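dude i think i finally got it to work??
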Amino acid sequence: MAKLFGTDGVRGLANAELTAELALRIGRAAGHLLGRQRKARVLIGRDTRASGEMLEAALASGLCASGADAIRVGVIPTPGVAYLARYLGSSAGAVVTASHNPAPENGIKFFGPDGLKLPDAVEEQIQELVDCAEQLPSPTGPGIGRIQERHDLVHHYGQEARHSIPQRLDGLKLVVDCANGATSHVAPEVLQDLGAEVVVLSASPDGLNINADCGSLYPQRMMEAVVSQCAHAGAAFDGDGDRVLLADELGRLVDGDRILAMCALHWAGTYRLPGNTVVGTVMSNIGLELALNEAGIELLRAPVGDRYVGEEMRRVGAALGGEKSGHVIFAQHGTTGDGIVTLLQILQIMTSTGKPLSTLADQMQELPQLLVNVPVASKDGWESVPAIQARIREVERVLRGRGRVLVRPSGTERLIRVMAEGPDADELSALVGSIADAVRCALG
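look at this
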């Protein structure tokens, strides 16, 4: 069988690539592996996709067939599963979600009992067992696992997120776009419970409208609503709620780089920023690095993916890290990106300083950055294509000393991402276009 796990779990077109049969086999494999030492208990959550119910049921059935118990919590943001897996002392947590991808796609990702994404080595073991799932032991009688429904745990996660800040938000007016996804009920509830006035967008999931022209991939409607509603800020979550993009009171987009800058500059020299160190990625804008360095804060760069950001944070003892996409990890509050917690941290800084979001966001000046996603038939071997590598070297020569270029494959989609930064936007467009053309010719 082809490799199942990418940088963020298993992904595919639901009922075509990611079928109920495959989900059942994954459940059997995971349950068998996790239950070798003691009876396994696995927490399962999902986002709002129509296929989520089918895949959740199949995954739970596979776990039970291996002898593991399944605790189904229903629709919940991904960070809620990471938190509850630790809180309940579960053997693991699983989320049926494809994050920001369109509704027809879905996925399965696992967290360990520590709330961290499973290491690559464990995923490889699950893969090996999936390939021979029919030969795994099948307990009978009392050895069969049971399914427990615990939809009440979503509220418990919401309250945990709520208590990540000490003060209330009375007097703040916010626009919140829930992407018709997993935050649709919990995010407005948390913010209103803290006293904020909330204008809610895209919080009526029907199974097919998740991420459809809304949420963090399409924040324009949220940005416009902030201005028309005279709100203090806006937020657009992605489908599974582990990332968020913001808008200031002027309707300008505030991405993950600016979120990191605001938090780091506010917490510099305190326990909230041990070692005055922040972990970004190779995609983090040079402007973030310059703003942090000026304040005596070091920016470390990890590969793209919150898994790798988290690993680097733990390696160096950092408490703050994240991605430009709005995936931000606060080590004091969780083990993975959490859009609700991220929004609350920024609102806390706004209320404690009395400064509008625009002023806080402008502490970082962004250099022009251009990213082009090039669809390809296959990502395999792209780095060995002479025409692509020659074009990259030429762009590096042109930008030397003034900017940088980064070409990499997507971890979850059949795309090659071409990014460049530099002082001149028009020049970047031409340079990135030349690499993208080479990729299309060779791999499109």
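The chain has four domains: 5-154, 171-252, 255-366, 369-443.
im so relieved honestly
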